[in-house]
Structures are given as C-alpha cells and as structure tokens.
What does this fold into?
Amino acid sequence: MHADISRITFRPDRHYSAVIAQQGRVQLDADANEQTAIQLVQARTTAADLIGQHGGPRGATGFELHFLGGSRELDDLSIGGGRYYVDGILLDATRPQPGVPVVDEAHDAHSTEEGEKDAPAETQPPATWTYWDQPDGHRDPERPSDRLPSQFPYLAYLKVWERSVTAAEDPLLREVALGSAMPDTAARLKVVWQVLPLPGSQLELADGATKDQVRAAFAKWAAAQAPSARMAARSERPEHADEDPCLVKPDARYRGQENQLYRVEIHEGGAAKDATFKWSRENGSVTFPVDELDGTWAELASLGSDDKLDLNVGDWVEPADSASLSRGEPLPLLRIEEIDLPGRRVRLSAEPDPSVGRRPELHPFLRRWDHRPGSRHTGSTGRTKQGTAKVRGGALRIEEGGWLPLEDGVFVYFEPGRSYRPGDYWTVAARTATGTVEWPTDAARRPLLQAPAGNHVHYAPLAWVLGEGSVADLRLAFAPLAAPIPAADAETLEAEATYEAEAAAAENAAAAGSGARPAGADEQGQPEK
It folds into this structure.
C-alpha cells in the first residue's frame, strides 16, 4: 500500500493475536495497522477454513454469469449480484442503485432562473454489472486485448487483490474542516475484483472436460501466476563517508538524516532481462492531484506542502488514476523538466500515455519516485565496480546477483533466476538511531531473502463459456450452519412426561399438608379445565 506509514510490523510467523496498548506510551501508526492486519488475517483464515478456497452463501451467491451476444456489436457477460468469498476475502457484486432525490418545484424553478442546465431525463439504471462496466475492470472496447475471446470455450474467472486509496484518489477522505494547509488523515484499503476471460487453449483441456477437470486445470494455471522473485536489503557504510559533512554518527552504515520507509516496487515484470524497478523513500506516498493536462504540461492542485514533499526538476513521476491502478499495467515514468510555481504547473519530459489523466472522474495524479540514474553498483562478489544504473521507461533495470545501492548506504539484492510481477513491492525501514535498516537476518547477521510484501493476488473460476447461450457454472455455494433444533425422540419425551408428573405430585402433597390449593386445581380444589 502506498500510504504514508512509518513501517510495517505485522509478522505472521510470530502468531500474535492482538496489539496491547500500554499507559503512558507513544501511540504509533504501525501499532494500529498491525492490529488491523491481525484481525483481517484471523477473519479471512476462519472464513477460508470454513468455506474453502472460494464459494458463496446459498441463496445469495454472487457473480452468476450469463452470455450476452446476439445483435450486440461486442460480446458481453452479465454479472449477477450477491456475495462471494475468495481465500476468505468477501466480495460483493451487487450493483448500487441511485438514491431518490427530493422533488422541489420551487428549487427547480430557481435553478432554471439562475441559468443551471436542466437535469437529464431519468433512466432506469441496469440491475447488474456487466463485463464492460464492472466497477474496477476499466475495460476498453477499443483495445482488442480487452474483448472477450471469439473462440469457444473460454473460462471467466475472478481476479482479486487489495490496493490503497488516499485523498488524492478519493477527495471525500479529506476532512475539509482541518483546512487546506493540513495533510490528509487515514488512508483506506480497497478490495478490487475483476471478471476476466482466459482462453481455453491455456488450460490444456480435452474436449468434453468436466467441471471438476476445468477447476483443477484453472487451479494449476493460477498457481503458475505467482511471482518467484525474492529480495534482500542491508545497510553499508559508503566509501568516502568521512568526507560527507552530515550529522549522523561517524560509524553509521545508514547515512540518512531522517527515518525513512523505503519502498522498492517492480515496474515492468517478466524475467530479469525485461524487468525494471523504482523506489521511494516515502513508501511511494507522495502524490500530486492533476487538475488538467495540456500536452506535456500538467496543472496540479498543489506543488507540495514542504521541501521534503514537493517536486523538483529532475524528479521522476508516474502519471496514474483509478483506471490505471486497477488495470495494473505499467506506464512509462516521466521526468520533471520545468516548474511554473505561480501557475502550479510542471512540464513533463513527454506527454502522458493517452489512457491516463484525461478523465477528471478518475482523479488523475502524479506519484513521485526518488530513484536516480548514475549510482555505482556492486557485482555478485560484493566488490564495487564502476557503472551507472540503467534506465528503461524511467525505471531502473533489475540486475540480479549483486548489491544495488539506493541512497545513503541502503542496498538491495535481487536473487538470480527469478520472475517479477508489476506492482509487487518490498519495504525497508531505515533508522537514524541505529544507523541501519530493519531487515531479517540469520544467526550470522546475513540478510535473508524475502518474498514480496504485496500485492497478493487471488483467483477463482466462475464459468466455463462453451458458446452463445451455453455457460457452465463453476461457482461453489455453502449453506448456513444454523438449522432447526430436531424434535426429541420417544424415549426423551416419555422421560420428560414422567419428570413433570412426579414434580406435580410432590407439589400437591406439599400443598395438602399446608392446606394450600394443590397444583393445577381451582379455588374449590377441583382440577382446572
């Protein structure tokens, strides 16, 4: 997540069940975030243990797919509303319906007098989502790769993950009462789901495959999508550190003057020869909402709140919006070439990709990254060698098997022979108090290779589309655990009747001895009718 956080302390291997606040102690964002992570893991693990890898509640199972073809220009799929769980993560496919406005003729007449445009005629909104308008799909009919396969059969499946959302993307998260000079407050995590097609040829199935065979083939395909990349980090006292007139400890390996949370994120994926990465000392949280794009000029809502969080000539930025983040497709990074302070504008090294930044409703913004070409690298033997970091599309090429410098004595290492996926990331906390970075090590203090901290992607099959009007449902459903209490057997009923008779007899005997009315009798001592 690209939130402005101090560090990530959640460690599943420690099996902590709760965060305990102590009196008189400083409260940190990491503590609250770890508590949230603990609860999410517990809830989702419980749901997955009970439900299985995927499934929906019977009677409200979401994501029922129907083929929509015929006279339409492009094939489509309707997505039925309801709930579904994938690896314990709750998804809701119900399409929200618009609210009911107040009918106020006086207000409408006043608006017309003021020159406001008449409201468009009301139309009945669709009852369900479709493949083309699903909320986080952002499919483009003009892109052939986004269209449903023309060859049958193909599999329609769910792709699920989480991403962070800040006030740059959702302005309603900002508390306007704090004023424009104050930063935003908490960020959010959003569950993103997409219904996507997979050509049947990629599943290597024979004709007439059963549903169980399709599910098994898809599970094998999904397992192959997981990246194998692993990275390590360390701090090392740079050469010529004594020449730096800084205020850090002379023997410090991390030479920065501030605590940082470095984020190392894969930009382009694939094998190492094709993959690139970018890094940020602020966890990639420095963003600038875009008010308007005009060629290579971008008008921004703000140029930053201080010298640490602003833009400078030479900075690399990533144009993004809600659609590009949901699609997860890397776009070229651009360099800041010129800054117009009075106009709150920046000139970019090239015009942003046509697919991003042109629609205000998608809340476009620029994300700042802090890497710079020109760093010296070390080889796989650890010895320093001369050379400059290679750049492609504004990001740094991955070089496996050697320690790559970020800045101020922070180094990262990519394990050789691995594959990379765009958006996967690692975080490295650097601390001035220790002059080092926080990274797991073995007993000999050697850095341990770690899988990416995110993004964790989950998959589930939905339907095997055999042709127009022929869709085999691959979803699973579960029944509620609650059930009616069964009727007692004859022996239990007889025992209960005997107990009640004995209790009544005892009560009557006690009443006779005291002159009181027997149980179950009226005022004259006769049995009640």
In short: Residues 490-514 form the longest helix (25 residues). Confidence is low (pLDDT under 50) at residues 379-387. The CA atoms of residues 322 and 361 lie 9 Å apart.
